Structure prediction request, 124 residues.
Amino acid sequence: MQIQVNTDKTIANHAGLDDHVQSVVSNALHRFGEQITRVEVHLSDNLGQKSADGDNRCLMEARLTGLQPIAVSDHAATLHQAISGATDKLKRAVDSAVGKLHDSKRHAEGVAATSAAVVASQED
Prediction:
């Protein structure tokens, strides 16, 4: 899984920030392994805009094989809180999407097996 960190002009992108984001995201999403090809993280400080949730924003977009990209965002008072909040939201969203994909495949296999059994019994 590739993790790409982008910041706006108000946030200094340094190695410590990159390491923190890499660590938090990879720890949260490690169980999805090969299903996630890339996660893009966009960090911004909306200092000029008033927000009830906080000035710092973290937007995450996960690219999964066989699915549309999944995007989530979180606003918080600090950048670390925004990263943590967005990571939690992304983990739940990916878990839900992968679960739905798994359920639909399992349902399709069950329907195919039932159809084959009906056809076989009609041929007898």
Summary: The chain has a mean pLDDT of 83.
